[in-house]
Model the fold of this input.
Amino acid sequence: MTNEELIVKLKAIVAPYIQDEAAFKTLNEDTDFVKDLKVNSANLVDIILDIEDEFDIRLENEDMEQMLDVKSAMAIVTSKLNA
Amino acid sequence: MGNTMKKRVVITGLGVVAPNGVGVVDFTKALKTGKSGIRFHQELKDLNFSCQIGGIPPVSEELKSKYFTDLQLRGFNSSGILYGCIAGIDAWKDAGFDMIPDSELDYNTGLIFGTGTSGVEKFREAIYKLDDNKVKRLGSTVVVQTMASGVSAYLGGMLGLGNQVTTNSSACTTGTEALLMGFDRIQAGKAKRMLIGSCSDHGPYLWGGFDAMRVMTYKHNDTPEDGSRPMSKTASGFVPGSGAGALILESLESAKERGATIYAEVLGGEINSGGQRQGGTLTAPNAEAVKRCIVKAIENSGMTPNDIDIINGHLTATSKDGLEIKNWSEALERRGGEFPYINSTKSMIGHCLAAAGAIECVASIIQLKDQFIAPNINCEDLNPEIEAMIASEKIPTKAIEKHFDNIAKASFGFGDVNACVIFKKYKD
Done:
C-alpha cells in the first residue's frame, strides 16, 4: 500500500471524530489528532479500534501511546502490515 | 432561615418521552384521549417472558439525530440516556433557552436527573466482549453510558450547566424525589434553576428481574392496550414501561425577571422512608410512613387535606392499589364522595419504573395547566375493595374538563421509600 493510499484510509477513519474541519481538509503526515483535528482524547481509543478493523491488525498499548499524529499512525500500521 | 426567606419555586419548562407520546404536545393529546402506549413485543416472547407487553416510546432515527451528533450516536446503546436527553433538552427549550455547543457556562442552573440503572444493553455488549477476552475492544463510551450519572453527564454538557449536576436513584420514587431535591436547592437560594427529571431504559434486560418476581401481568399478551389496569378488579400485575420526564424548576423571581411562561407552582412536599418496619419490606410499603409522607407534604405546602383537588397516584395495577387508596383516604381523612379525584397515568403508559415519577409529574402539570383530569383507562371494572372506600365517580374513566387549583403527586418505591409533592395553579 502506498503512503497516499494509506493516508486516504486513515482520513476516512478519523473523519467521524474530528472537530476541526479546516485542519481535516488539509490533513497530511504532520497532522496531530488532538492538537490539530481537536479529537476528544477519549476518542483516540475508538480510532485505534477502527484502524484495527480496517487493516485487520492488532495494536498494543505501546503502539497506541505513540499514535498521536498521522505520521506515527502510518508508521505503525505499515510495520504491522509488513510483520 | 424563616419561612419568609424561602424562595417560591415555579415550573417553567416541560419535556417528556412517554410510550404514548413523545413531546408535550403528543403526550397531552394522549392524556386527553386515553391513548395507550402499551404494545406486544416479540423479543419478550422469544425470551420466554411471562409478560410479553410493554411501553416503549416511539423515537425515530430522524428524531434522535435532532438531539445527538453523529459522533455521540457512534456505539450509543443506552435507551435511558436517549430518552433523558430528549426530555431534558425539550424542557430546557420549552423554558425559553437554547442548546448551543459553545454557550457560556451557566452557574445558576443545575441538574438532578435520576435513573435506576443506566445503559443495560451497552453493559451487556461490554460483558460479552470482556468475557471473550476483548476488554481492549470495548471502546471509549462504555463508562459514560453505563455509569448511573450518565444521563446527567450527557445533559450537563449539552446544555453547559454549572450548578450542581448529579443523579439520584430511589427506585420508582426517583423522579419525584429529583423534583423535590431540585425544589429544596432553589428554595434555599443555591440555584436559580434546576433541570430535574428521571429516565429508564427499556427492554428485557431491565424488565427480566420483575418478570421473575411475577409482579408483571401475563394475562394480556394478546390484548396489550388492556394490560395496564390500575384500580381495576381484574388488575393482575403491572406492565413495564420506559421513557423520561423533565421539568425546569425556577425561582419565581428568576422566572418573572425573564418573563417566562409559568405552568405551575411547586408548593412543597415530603420525602421519607418506611425503614422496612411496621409491615414495610424491601418491596412492600410501610403504610404508616406512606401516610406520614402525604400528611407532611400537605403540611409543608401550607395546605390542608381538603385543599387537594386531584391525586395523581402511584397505582401500578398490582394487589397493592387498594392499600394505596386506603393510605390516601386515611392520610387525607376523606372518604366516599369527599375523596378527591384520583388517576393513574400508568393505565396508559405502564409502569415506567425509575422514569415513572418524572413522567407522571409532567402529566400532573399538564392536567393542571390545561385544567382537565386524565382518564383511568381499563378501570371500568373498579376493584370493589376500592369502591368500598371512595366513590367510583372519583376515578374517572374518561377525561373530565375541570377547573381546579391543587394536585398531589406521589411515588413509592422498592426499598420502602416515598415521595409526595403538591403542585398549585400559579397565581401572583
Remarks:
- The longest helix of chain A spans residues 70-82.
- The mean pLDDT of chain A is 94.
- Residues 3-82 of chain A form a domain with the Non-ribosomal Peptide Synthetase Peptidyl Carrier Protein; Chain A fold (CATH 1.10.1200.10).
- Chain A is about 60% helix and 0% strand.
